[in-house]
Write a structure and sequence with these properties.
206 residues, five-stranded mixed β-sheet, 0% helix, elongated
């Protein structure tokens, strides 16, 4: 596990140990934005050491191999990322926050709702283009009850790259609340008031 600027990542890491008392040599594998699903050391047929890992991200089956002695590849240029919100800025309590991410080249993108480490989404674009980022409301609504600013931590890099561009997107959102219909009232005309007057006629006896 690795945390940087409030963002947790599961990254492939290893170390070469010298049991004769030498120093430990830390190793870093893969990029900085792809969560690792599994990691295992290997011994290849020629006796050299290697590490294999996957970062499927629930969508793509990717397997990587790090071979001892292989030179580091040149760091690719970081792509330019644009993120915007799609749809209304009034969101229901049970609805996710949906964003549109656009890269000008192949890229890895990771998004996390600020102060909510469980609300995340990650994606990889194999070429320039756009794709949705979906942040689901796992432990509660995305938007506060009275609305307000919602911050999204964004990280982007070239595919498998170590140079990461960090930015924070602040959105001013409202939470949808269902209104109540006013009570129907019926106004009936008042009935005319009838006043009865009793009269009594008296006659004198002879």
């Amino acid at each position: 596990m690795h945390r940087s600027d409030g963002v947790w990542r599961v990254l492939p890491r290893g170390a070469l140990l010298d049991f004769a008392g030498g120093q430990r040599e830390p190793l870093a594998f893969g990029g900085s934005l792809r969560n690792v699903d599994s990691l295992t050391p290997l011994t290849l047929a020629d006796g050299s050491r290697a590490v294999a890992w996957t970062d499927n991200n629930g969508k793509l089956g990717r397997v990587h191999l790090g071979h001892e002695g292989s030179p580091d590849r040149p760091e690719p240029a970081a792509p330019r990322l644009q993120v915007s919100m799609t749809g209304s800025r009034t969101i229901r309590g049970e609805s996710p926050l949906v964003l549109r991410a656009t890269c000008d080249a192949a890229c890895d993108i990771y998004a996390q709702l600020a102060d909510h480490e469980e609300v995340v989404d990650g994606l990889s674009l194999p070429a320039a283009g756009s794709r949705r980022i979906v942040l689901p409301p796992l432990l509660g609504p995305i938007v506060p009850r009275r609305g307000g600013p919602v911050r999204v931590l964004l990280r982007s890099s070239a595919p498998g790259g170590h140079t990461v561009t960090a930015r924070t997107l602040t959105l001013h959102l409202r939470r949808y609340t269902s209104g109540f219909l006013p009570k129907a009232t019926t106004h009936l005309p008042k009935a005319p008031q009838i006043t009865a007057h009793k009269s009594c006629q008296m006659s004198s006896l002879p």
